Every structure is written in structure tokens, then in C-alpha cells.
Design the sequence.
């Protein structure tokens, strides 16, 4: 009923019924919020009530059972992971520390576009910007420039595409074992490949630590490795989990 252009048909439903519309996608109750005022109520005024995450097959396979910060349910684990990420990756000091790295890679991007323009060549800006983001991410998180042996960009591109597919298993969970579209099989395959790459990166960081526990580099992976055996705030009680779309 949503057709080939669901965003347009949702727009027509909103025009007919108002800025908050209740639907059922398969067996999953879904709320469509489409005005700034309504979005503020959900995302700011009552954000804790709607801070849960839906269980989707992609996050189960690609995020180690929905352990990633973007997919894990609201609770003590999510708060701890968010605190780690905010403090060790997104704090003001960390953002300023990596400013030269961002400036350097941005300079490479601009220079490459200038050269292509001077030569009258066509430039795929989407690909250029994607490579720019990948280079910066690798430098900040892994402590080194992009490594063609790991081919992270290709893996992440495939993973994001799989996340964006309409997966019947997410909306009719009882059909998930049948894997009608074959998406589950693809998710398992790419999950194994991504896991191998991440294990390789972690092993290299662990081996770089000298016998006294010192590391000449201090990127985000190093910080996470040093915190592997720390407790996840056992005194912090979980909040109720509310699923929403």
C-alpha cells in the first residue's frame, strides 16, 4: 500500500491525518512523526520515553547482537558506551587534537578536485567525499591512513546498503527463519568478513604495546583495548526498554 515511493505516500497520509500517524508495518506498530513541533515532543521533551531502539536483523548480525551505540537499547550499557565515545572520541580536546588531520585531508580533497577541473575531467564528488571521510575515520580511530589490504570502505559501503534494505524479517519476525529475500545470508557473510578485519586491527594494536604497557600511539582503538576488562557500571540499573520506529 505504501507503493514504490513510500516517502511520498507517507506524505499524503500525513496531509490527510495530521503530523502524527500510527501505522502497522507487518506486525510492527509504527509511528510517523512529520512536523518540527511533534518531533520536538518525541526527541527532546519526552526523549527518555522514546529512547529505545527497534530490533532489526542487520544490527543483530553487524553490531554483535545490537551492541553498537546506535542500535543498543537504552539503559546502563548504552549510557556507558556513549560516555566512552563522548569522552575519548568526541570531546572538545579530541576534536581539536585531530583538527590538523582533518585540515590535511581536506587539503588533499580540494587539490584533487582543482587538478581534475583544470584538466577538464568529470569528478564524482560523492565518491571523493566518501574517501575523504574514510581517510579521516581511519586516522582518528585506527591511528593510521587507509590500508588497501583491509578495504574498509568497500566493507562499510556494503554493510550500509544492507542496513538500508527493506527486510521482511524485520516487519514479520516469524518469517525470519525462512530468509525469503536472502538478506540474512548476506548479513552473516559480511559480518564474518568485517569481524576478521576488526580482529586484525585489534591484534595489531595489542602487539604494539610494549612489556611495560606503553603504546607509542593513542588512537581510539588503543583506548578501547585498555578498557576491555573494566566493569560496565554494574550499579547502574537498566531503564525500561521501549521499542519504537
Sequence:
Amino acid at each position: 500500500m505504501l507503493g514504490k515511493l513510500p516517502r511520498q505516500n507517507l506524505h499524503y497520509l500525513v496531509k490527510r491525518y495530521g503530523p502524527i500517524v500510527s501505522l502497522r508495518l507487518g506486525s510492527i506498530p509504527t509511528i510517523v512523526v512529520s512536523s518540527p513541533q511533534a518531533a520536538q515532543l518525541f526527541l527532546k521533551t519526552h526523549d527518555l520515553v522514546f529512547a529505545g531502539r527497534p530490533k532489526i536483523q542487520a544490527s543483530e548480525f553487524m553490531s554483535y547482537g545490537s551492541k553498537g551505540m546506535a542500535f543498543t537499547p537504552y539503559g546502563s550499557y548504552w549510557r556507558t558506551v556513549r560516555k566512552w565515545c563522548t569522552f575519548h572520541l568526541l570531546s572538545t580536546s579530541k576534536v581539536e587534537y585531530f583538527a590538523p588531520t582533518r585540515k590535511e585531508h581536506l587539503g588533499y580533497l580540494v587539490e584533487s578536485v582543482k587538478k581534475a577541473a583544470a584538466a577538464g575531467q568529470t569528478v564524482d564528488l560523492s565518491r571523493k567525499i566518501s574517501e575523504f571521510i574514510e581517510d579521516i575515520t581511519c586516522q582518528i580511530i585506527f591511528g593510521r591512513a587507509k590500508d588497501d589490504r583491509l578495504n574498509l570502505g568497500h566493507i562499510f559501503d556494503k554493510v550500509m546498503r544492507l542496513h538500508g534494505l527493506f527486510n521482511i524479517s524485520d516487519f514479520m519476525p516469524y518469517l525470519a527463519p525462512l530468509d525469503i529475500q536472502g538478506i540474512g545470508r548476506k548479513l552473516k557473510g559480511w559480518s564474518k568478513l568485517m569481524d576478521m578485519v576488526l580482529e586484525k586491527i585489534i591484534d595489531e594494536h595489542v602487539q604494539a604495546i610494549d612489556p611495560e604497557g606503553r603504546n607509542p600511539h593513542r588512537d581510539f582503538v588503543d583506548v578501547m583495548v585498555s578498557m576491555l576488562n573494566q566493569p560496565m557500571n554494574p550499579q547502574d540499573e537498566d531503564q525500561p526498554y521501549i521499542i519504537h520506529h
